[in-house]
């Protein structure tokens, strides 16, 4: 490490419930580290952040902190009780090293996040509370920032703002997040909590999955020299992570084919033209058909003149900012809310399952057995009778937890239990409202797999960009004005369309739905005057962007070799770091060129 650490733990150990949650962990955090903290639900990720912040005491180990280091912890669920307004919460006295921030700093960040800090804390939404907590944390100008699921409850614009802030941030951070896109864009090293121990790899999350697969493959090979029980455990690990991810590649190919088919059905105007069957049972493959539907609240058109036919097997993603109308649209499609004009026709054979953010079905006093099998040993899984312990394995649970009370489980474990319960029911319509909240990365892989194998239709409201890219065939993008863009593909496809429509300069090349800079040949072609430096950037950046795209493609192809890490770990690390640098430079170059293009057009 080039610079001495600002915080370190030596031989850290903590017991929980009569067992070692983790033991003999040593870690060092440098002044510019951007660390992804990875691990399955229940391994102690949040607990480790609390130990770093000195909020709880370890059973063993030595914690060292550089003098005058300010550590700030952005908790996953901050406690707002006892505070009248969001500003009262933001200005509360802090723990040691976590002092109250200046009022003007809180107000400045809150303004950029679009949150009114005089909002009543008791009635504020989850998104408003999350923004207030972020404003409090960032305004303290920490040297080390601890982030526990920072993107939960944030809409896409707030996530973009937070990412931009962290890119400019001069200190170090450790983050727990299920948001793969967030992690790939920001982290330069990974801490992996696994079975009571911790590994560190100085490669961002973009290289984590290849590293993880390599570690499990090495363990599986080593297990062949040990006893049969260990062989089985290692084999389960390999099947549960590595092989599942390989199978998912086949599912992604199928998803891409479904997107191509769906794209051919969507008209150039962005909506599918409708001819509704007179039979409400839909003799065709359609399950939901919306025709020119609109909804107005307080004089504002939330949804206006929207049409779409949803086919059996579609996976529909709904995205947009908070208040853009996502929930309103979802409720109109499912029949919970009637449109002010237009009509929605649904198959009379629809049988839906709703999984919402509130996780309201999971009472803390109930046991896992109660939730899944009403206290019994067997569960009906879409017509097949399965033993509850075997079914728990399918959702990455230890079968021994059958009599564990729900109240003692982590938020992620409760979310996974709810998925297990709901996916057992017979249905042909699945509605998921922010399903990725509280889930670890392995469970997200599992959820993607279950959705891919689901026979029915899926409606998903989510801000998780990577999850949408891996699961949906059609994206409905709401801009807050009542308009709904219908795009075949995932979040990236919708984002590309938005960029094409709003920022593509006149004469710019358009390839595969993405706006791409077209190289300028002479300054005389430009309708606006630019400085010499700006003119040079405008002309040369498209060439540099193409070079970076080529380097990224080449780097990704090299990292796709599963044997690279074993054969040459240093080469693996160098290429991974170079790939992250190229992506960062490409993003900055594109933004710079688009700013110049707007000046040229203006």
The CATH class of the largest domain turns out to be Alpha Beta
Specify the number of helices.
18
Q: What ranges have pLDDT less than 50 throughout 5 or more consecutive residues? A: 228-239, 267-284, 503-527
- State mean pLDDT (0 to 100 scale): 81
Query: What percent of the residues sit in helical stretches (DSSP H or I)?
Result: 40-55%
The Cα radius of gyration reads 25 Å
CATH H-tier superfamily of the largest domain: P-loop containing nucleotide triphosphate hydrolases
Q: How are the strands of the largest sheet arranged?
A: 5-6-7-3-8-9
Overall structural class, as computed from helix and strand content, comes to alpha/beta
What count of domains describes the coordinates? 3
* Strand-residue proportion: 15-25%
Inertia-based shape: globular
CATH topology of the largest domain: Rossmann fold
Topology:
Elements (H helix, E strand, L loop, with lengths): L6 E10 L2 E11 L4 E5 L6 H8 L7 E6 L5 E4 L11 H5 L12 H11 L12 H13 L5 E5 L7 H13 L3 E5 L3 H7 L2 E6 L2 E5 L6 H16 L4 H38 L20 E12 L2 E12 L3 E6 L5 H9 L6 E6 L5 E4 L12 H6 L4 E4 L2 E4 H7 L16 H13 L5 E5 L7 H13 L3 E5 L3 H7 L2 E5 L5 E5 L2 H13 L5 E3 L2 E3 L15 H28 L4 H4 L1 H33 L1
Parallel strand pairs: 3-7, 3-8, 5-6, 6-7, 12-18, 12-19, 14-17, 17-18
Antiparallel strand pairs: 1-2, 1-4, 8-9, 10-11, 10-13, 15-16, 19-20, 21-22
Please tell me about this protein's structure.
The protein is of the alpha/beta class and 602 residues long. The chain contains 18 helices and 22 strands. α3 crosses α4 (126-138) and α7 runs antiparallel to α8. 39% of the residues are buried. Mean pLDDT is 81; it is low at 228-239, 267-284 and 503-527.
